[in-house]
Fold this sequence. Notes:
Elements: E1 7-8, E2 13-14, E3 19-20, E4 25-26, E5 31-32, E6 37-38, E7 43-44, E8 48-50, E9 55-56, E10 61-64, E11 77-80, E12 85-86, E13 91-93, E14 102-105, E15 110-111, E16 116-117, E17 122-123, E18 128-129, E19 134-135, E20 140-141, E21 146-147, E22 152-153, E23 158-159, E24 164-165, E25 170-171, E26 179-182, E27 188-192, H1 194-199, H2 204-219, H3 224-234, H4 239-249
Parallel strand pairs: 1-4, 2-5, 3-6, 4-7, 5-8, 6-9, 7-10, 8-11, 9-12, 10-13, 11-14, 12-15, 13-16, 15-18, 16-19, 17-20, 18-21, 19-22, 20-23, 21-24, 22-25, 24-26
Antiparallel strand pairs: 26-27
Amino acid sequence: MIHPTAVVDSRAEIDSEVEIGPYAVIARDVQIHAGTIIGSHVTIDQDTTIASDCKIFQHAAVGAVPQALKYQGERTFLRIGRGTTIREFVTIHRGTAFGGGTTEIGEENFLMAYTHIAHDCFTGRKVIFANAASLGGHIKVGDCATLGAFVAVHQFVRIGNYAFVGAMTGVSKDIPPYVLAAGSPRAKLHGLNVIGLKRHDFTRETIVALKRAYRILFRFGLTLNEAIERVTAEVDQLPEVANLLAFIKSSERGVTR
Length: 257
């Protein structure tokens, strides 16, 4: 059902099972799949694809041009995954030609009010953004990560799978997977995200191995190279431990410690 006051461009592709509320504006070359609900006064800009069963609440602005001085009007894209919830006044921008061309929100993300996702960002599955969490450009957020209220993440930073970043934290370096991070103005690590791991049914063996790896990497006062060597030699190389080491080795901005 499309409310009669909504403005929908004739070049948009809207499934017959989509609901669009009063005064929403849907631009050209938008695709919205079945079961998605668009609230009142939502703006969905061009070249945005919204998968099935999403909910976008009133006054969200989705798919606007990027806030990037180098952007010159090139055609770029935004993709929003299935089952994602976007609350009031959220802003999400399309990609840039120099940044890969696409911003992508994974499946079953939950973006609370006033969240901002800038150009060329990528989020995995089941990511939670609390109120007013903000991503600069070119950021990657892993599966099941959580960002607290008013978290601000610097461009090009990565946040690993199952990481939890506490409210009011400034993030300027990569946050490894499976950890707790918080601090103002800069993030510091505060241990393993044990509660989150248990909620996602990680085994006791995996949590014990990750705890051991965490202590060596971040609490023994070693250089990262020294710590990586010790973890490789002394900790069971479960897939999660290997993922943690691979994340650290591939960091370009440096790792939060």
